[in-house]
Amino acid sequence: MARDTGFPAADAENDFSRQRRRAELSRLVSWLRREPDDVNEILPFDEVVAAVGRVGERSLGLQVIPVNSIVGSVDRTRDFDRFFRPMSTRVRERWQRLAAAQRRGESVPPIQVYRIGSMHFVSDGHHRVSIAYAMHWSTIDAYVTEIQTKISPDGIAQRGDLVIKDHRRLFLTRVPLSGPQRAAVVVTDPWEYAEISQSVEAWGFRLMQEVGEFLSRETVARRWFGEEFLPVVRMLRAAQMLPDHTDAEAYLWVARERYRLVRQHVWNDEIIAELSHLAPRRHRPASP
C-alpha cells in the first residue's frame, strides 16, 4: 500500500487514482477470465426488490454496519463498481474533497441505506462508501431502513442471480408452498420454475375434476407436493436416477418423459424402470 505524504489533498488524489486503476484492472481480469459481464456490477436496488418482492419496510435507526455488506445502490449504479471503486473521473472532484476532509479529521455524517437480508443498498452517501472501501474501513455508521420481502434474498451475489429469484417468486405465487415444502422445490434453470408451475396447475385441474369441486392454490400446492412430488422423488432416489439433479429437476425431467412415452399421468415402478436408461447425467467441471 502506498505511503501517505501527510498532505490530505495530495493523499486523497492518490487514493482516487489508485481506486480507478483497481477498477479498470478488475474489469480487465474479468474479461481475460471470460467471467459474466455482471460480475463487477453494483447491484441495483429496484431490480433486487422486484425480484424478491416487497412486503413492507421499517426504520431501524442509526446502526454500525459492515462496509463489505454494502453491495448495491438506489440510483448510482453507473458511477461505481461492485466494490464502490469509481467507474469514471466524473466523481473525482467530490470524492477527493470528501476524502481530504476525512483525512483532516472532519466529522462525516452517517450514510443512508436500505437493508435486504444481509445486503445494504446506498440511498445517500455513495462517495463516503467508496472512500470507506478505499481506506479499508471495516464498519461505517448508517441510518438503516429494512425491506421485508416475499422470498429470501439469500444467494444473490450478482445481477444475473436476480433472474432465478424473480422466476422463483412467480413460481411461489402460482404454487404457494410453505415451510420445508417450499425449500424442497429448487431448480438452477430459472425457466424450469415456469414449467413446474404449469405442471402443478395441470395436476390441480385434473384433481378438481376428480373430486368435483374447486380447490384453492394453497390446497392444490399442498396436495401436489404430498401426493405427486414426494412419491415420484422417492421412487427416483430409490432407483438411483438423476443423482446430480435437484429433486425438482429430477421430478420435472421424469414427468416430461413419462408423458412422452406412456401418454398417461400415472406413476409406478414399471414406468420408472422404463425411464431409468434414458436419464441424463450432468457433466461436473473438473476440480482445479
Automatic annotation (TrEMBL):
It comes from the Bacteria. InterPro entries: ParB/Sulfiredoxin_sf. This is ParB/Sulfiredoxin domain-containing protein.
